[in-house]
Fold this sequence. Notes:
By secondary structure, this protein is α+β, with helices and mostly antiparallel strands. Among the domains are: 2-108 and 481-494, no CATH class; 206-387, no CATH class. Helices cover 43% and strands 14% of the residues. The protein has 19 helices and 16 strands. The protein has helices at residues 10-14, 19-28, 38-45, 49-65, 83-98, 111-148, 152-159, 162-167, 176-181, 211-214, 261-273, 287-293, 303-316, 326-335, 340-348, 390-395, 399-409, 419-425, 433-449, and strands at residues 2-3, 72-73, 103-104, 206-210, 230-231, 237-239, 250-257, 282-286, 318-323, 351-356, 361-363, 367-371, 385-389, 455-461, 467-473, 493-494. The strands form 6 sheets. Strands 5, 6, 7, 9 and 10 form a 5-stranded antiparallel β-sheet that branches. Strands 8-12-11 form a 3-stranded antiparallel β-sheet. A hairpin with a 5-residue loop joins strand 14 and strand 15.
Amino acid sequence: MNIRPALVDKYDLIALETTQQLREALELDIDFAFAWAPEDLRDIAFERNATAEMLSNMLSAASVTADDKALYTYAGFVRPMTDAEWFSKMAAIAEGARRYLKVVDDNETLHADHMAEQIRIEAERAQARAVREAHTQAEAASEKARTAAPASVVVEAVTDDWEEFAQRDFELEEDERAEEGGDEHLSPEVDWVEHDIFLPAIRDGFMHLPNLIVGSGIVRTGPKNRTRERWTEQAPKVIRRVSGYKDGEVVISYSGEELRPGDIETWSKLLHAAVNMPLGSDVHIGARGLLTSLHGRGTGGNAYATLREEVTRLQAAMLHIKSSDPDFIDQMVDLFPSDPSVIKAKKSRFVEIRVQLLGASTTDGSTWTIEVPRKIRTLFGKKLSSWFDEDVYYSLKGDAARRLYLLYGSHVNCWPLRLAELKEYMGSTMGQDSKFRNLMNKAHDELKAKGAIKGWKFEQSHRRLETLCYVIDRKVKPKKKVEAKTVKCIGAAVV
């Protein structure tokens, strides 16, 4: 059986510093990719999301035109394959990395060890579930025994006051949801065991932000010298449309001061500092270190005063979220499996949650101790949050282009958006549509120049009933036009 020759050494490809350099090398000759084993590909694809997306598209396109007759043996795989099959399997691995999932094909040499590890992990999870269920049943039995036969002294204690109690005027509220749901087993008097919750691991060079925030008008754009609006809990800013969600699927009531991209940049760095600590713990961080980690801020002028204002603003920011989104609810069930309200939400498929972006803090002026709230974890997870390349983000000049990058980056593909929709999702305060369109045209040009998007047009979209929309191309196209083909990875294990 033939061994597939490699045209270059794998370390030559790994040594390429940027996604653009790697793209140029593979465009020169896609066969350079044969130098990689699956683990080599993962090392590169997991380094940057933009790289993973580029590799997924280029390898997928190559699988369509590659030879599907001759069989070769490839590094990292057990049985021989054709070039077309190899490209298809490697494309699936890269696509998994783009979605922050480790895809291991059943033909890989790593597969047996990987599956053994998954069996071990699942056994540990099953054991943990059994312990939790046993604890819950024991608590329930204890509660039932405690309430089964009230002591006579309790009856005697209230008997003397019953006539006076019966004379009081008050109204009783009907508990219709209790009658419908039968929630008597969810007694608030029963305690449940909480476990430590951590933020997902954050890779250096990336911001990790919730789609509910970057896909809605919570983070606003406009003139920097304009006075920020404020909303109270009694009169909040109500957002009923979030990009990527159906109308009404998520409703956010926001109270606090208006947030802008600078606030989210600071929040991202504070979350990064908290990633190795259980949520609800205090994060200790120096003001100077925080400022120097924020690209372009510096430590001169009013930098410290601005940073203090941002932290205070984030502490006052409160999201009251009502959601019927199944991914959001399932996330809460996974995080808080013993919370009675979450158990009920799993059945009703509706949940409400109040989330504060930052908690209480202390400071001596140079060092902060800040609490990162536990419930903030509900906003991060598969289909709920996205990664953003800091090099690309900070290369963009101005809030409009950066805000647009966050909006588009929270989607796998960019749905054509009308001007009014773009204005709503970006939280623009600009009054005239003509000025906003000019601003967006410049922002789209900048995103294209920096490689954040492949191209854009403002044209009638057949996907939107021929209305004028911004139509965005984010995909890397093959050199030759080829027919689309679905890439499948049969028997792949995903973690």
